[in-house]
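Thread: Tubulin polymerization-promoting protein family member 3, structure

OP (GT): Posting the sequence first so everyone is looking at the same thing. Length is 178 residues per the record. Can we get the structure tokens written out before standup tomorrow? I want them in the notebook alongside the other entries.
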Amino acid sequence: MAESADMDQLLTSFKRFAVHGDTKASGKELNGKNWAKLCKDCKITDGKNVTSTDVDIVFTKVKQKTSRMMTYEEFQRALEELAPKRFKGQSREEALQSIFKLVEGKEPSNVGVTKVAKAGAVDRLTDTSRYTGSHKERFDESGKGKGREGREEIVENTGYVGAYKHAGTYDNKLKTEK
């Protein structure tokens, strides 16, 4: 069979795929969905010799009848089932080594995972330089929010109305009259 270092890498890959997408998974058993993902990500399925149907059939064949998961030993048997089919020109032992090399050290890929879309409407709605009215007062020139000062009317106890032009001139007026 394979060397112990290779088997350690195979076990590591098995555990990584076993816990993928499931926060409660222990890493000791692999479900059918993650088995199919492992075969796809490690390029065991090639669309010609090994298809997703073959992968599902092998999964059902090697796992226990009452179980919905496969153990590490069943995982090795499943790879042994798929090896001659995937690598037709090689002997059974060479095919097994080749399929182990495909899986060793691999981990689930996140290709195709939904990313944050930045549409033109979002840019337009979050551009603070285009805000008008009372919303304009909440941000400074750089677009940074002013915090509490931008949300609340800060009361200045000067005795003048907020928009009065000649604020602070009363004392000057009294001095000039005397």
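GT: Both are above now. Quick notes for whoever picks this up: Residues 82 and 110 are 24 Å apart (CA to CA). The longest helix spans residues 4-19.
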